[in-house]
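Appendix C reproduces, verbatim, an entry submitted by the partner laboratory led by Prof. M.T., so that reviewers can inspect both the input and the predicted structure.
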Amino acid sequence: MSRVVFGVRPVEELCRARPREVVIVYVADGYRSKEIESAVAAAKDRGITVEFRPRALVADLAASPNHQGMAAVAGEFQYVRADEMLAAASAAGEAALLLILDSITDPQNFGALVRSAEVLGAHGVIVPDKRAAPVTGAVVKASAGASERMRIARVHNLLGTIDWLREQGLAVWGGAADEGATPLAQADLRGPLAVVIGGEGRGLRTAVARRCSALARIPQRGHVASLNASVAGAILLYEAVRQRATHV
């Protein structure tokens, strides 16, 4: 099944990271910029066909007003297995750092979390195959193309996957808002680690929280009930990266 990726940066990242999957790139008539020229050059350098088409066609293809004048037709997103993420960490000589998303259904949050994971050097993102957003054009756009460079696994049994990761020696820390959770500054996130972020509004499901090695909370001084899921995920990942850098 084909998919459509839209937006200048996402299309360029797609062409650079997964050129064999790109069928064609469309540029809307009248759209010109250095960024578009860079994306077009990246496509052509990799033998990808680029065609200029009416704006309405590109807008219809993207099904979004945020297409920025570019859309690409590509093959189905290639998910990976969780063990491939651990293998990548091992090959890099690094302690594994994974992000697990429990019931994240908003493509914007999903994309933002993938972007944070890629920027901060995580080895992969794991999502369940139900009650969660798949990798769509909207997710790619929200991730600024980071989804095309990030290992993403869709698993049928999230609880079983968490159990398996713990058996492989990873500590699984869930983000939680309850007072009983460990304050983030006191959480030891230096070793092989998977960070779990719960769904919008409800947080971690009870069964998922029980499977975690421990729960960490981000201390809050304000009056808003909780942080956005994508912000919370970025903070937890950054703290893990900070601790690793400090204790090298």
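Residues 3-74 form a domain with the 60s Ribosomal Protein L30; Chain: A; fold (CATH 3.30.1330.30). Additional entries are available on request from the coordinating office.
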